[in-house]
Amino acid sequence: MFSLVQKRRLFFLISMAVIIPGVLIMLYSLFTTGSLFRLSNDFVGGSIYELRFTEAGADETAIRDVFQQFGNTDISIQSLGATDEHRWSVRANFQDEEVQTNILNALEAITPLDRASLRVEQVSGTVGQEVSQSAFLAVIVASVIVTGFVVIAFRQVPNAFRYGVCSIIAMVHDVLVVSGIMSLAGLLFGWEVDALFLTAVLTVLAYSVQDTIVMFDRIRENIPKHLGEPYEVIVNRSILETIHRSLATQLNAFFIMIAILLFGGESIKQFIAILFVGLLTGTYSSIFIAVPLLVAWEKGEIAFINQPKKDLTPLEGEA
Description:
alpha+beta
């Protein structure tokens, strides 16, 4: 039988090779920009302009020049819809009504604006902070609930608490990988963290936990079926029996996301890209981190945990 759990140290090293550079990138971003990520107006506040020109002639450079003339230093410009629709979304600094009027007049000097479809909104950074705090609280509560659920569901398995802890560690693994990628994309491509990023992270965590629990559940089923086999062999058997289902489910989602990345609108591509990376690392962590980590813990290989090695063959009374 091909053994995956015996290569657990390799899998752990691969994860560290991704997570450590990601953490360093976030620290670099923190020291150079004052934030772990490039934040959108959803978090720092500002003005949002939804513009539609009735004729061609306005491009990103011309629009940016107009906003910079009125003191805007942090500008995000995005084309909306088809090219012939001449629609743009602009996120800029807070401006009073007089400055907004001057900006719109300057834009109309480039090419006529459709004033009927014009929309200008002020976004408070407090809203974004409240959303991020709620998302952080949701992750903490979800972690506690997942741990409790796993302990109760796996109560007939020795050391059920370890299954819950390994599930949470896999969640943290996924958050660190996605955060590192997002921080790097912010530095290289100007990607900004917004409410959709939080949605993507929470979605990734849900997928990751569900996939991990499926793996653990097969281990629980196989322990009484294969009495006398070493614990490591039972776990490896469980992975091989479940991996095809996990990969088949995730591949369907990957194909859909790739299609959206290739043919979808610009406004959703960043969200889909982060979701794609998150589901990829979530699938990896469920198979190659959570379950091997459980074996390493059972065998006393985790540092700072005084767990001597012992014979882990399940006893009939423990099944």
